């Protein structure tokens, strides 16, 4: 039997193979993930402008807490509790390709000494969708339990550490839609909307000062200054204020806007 060269078929296969290879997305960069934590880029971009008057804020019924990540390594939780910590947020994930290697020691250790704790996700709108990242977060420690000791998960949205484009290559409408996608998916998975961590500066610059979340998501505000200052649009008050990037507790320092029983109320939902 005479054999004919497979000119058309082979050309088609070659074209198909080339197209498939060219469509493979670039691998996401997580080289900074170990050091990225809530406020790392806010401190770098917006600066540190002093500390609040602790006497004033504790006298007004604020509750002291902190947040940690793999950047802190293993935490001495007995020492943290002894220094006055009542609650803590622990970084669990970043994007869809990084989990905090210290998460178990930090999250379970905080619970072991009686702290109310929650997990947070460092958002990467440049690498995947909001829903995909919410699912990754929940699947890797970011869920919520109705046990009175677990805070709802938090979404950390701040300046992009991987690029000069601090808004992750998205316009205000695109970023607002990404945050909503994350929030809606997290709420569907856990029954609780996530807390949103941000700064007024980033929120204004990158979401166009969206008012879409003030009625549903608690605000965790970052501002390293003696006063809280203006809030992002849509929120009448902050639930948590991250007032310093270092202090008496491991990691960043926070005040919950209320007494300790109000922290427990947020945990209970």
UniProtKB/TrEMBL annotation:
> The organism sits in which domain of life?
Bacteria
Q: Which reaction does it catalyse?
A: Hydrolysis of (1->4)-beta-linkages between N-acetylmuramic acid and N-acetyl-D-glucosamine residues in a peptidoglycan and between N-acetyl-D-glucosamine residues in chitodextrins
- Stored PROSITE patterns: GLYCOSYL_HYDROL_F25_1, GLYCOSYL_HYDROL_F25_2
Q: What is its EC number?
A: 3.2.1.17
State the signal peptide span.
1-22
Q: Which InterPro entries match?
A: GH (IPR017853), Glyco_hydro_25 (IPR002053), Glyco_hydro_25_AS (IPR008270), Glyco_hydro_fam25_subgr (IPR018077)
Tell me its family.
Answer: Belongs to the glycosyl hydrolase 25 family.
Protein name, UniProt field: Lysozyme
Organism source for this protein? Answer: Amycolatopsis magusensis
List the taxonomic lineage: Bacteria, Bacillati, Actinomycetota, Actinomycetes, Pseudonocardiales
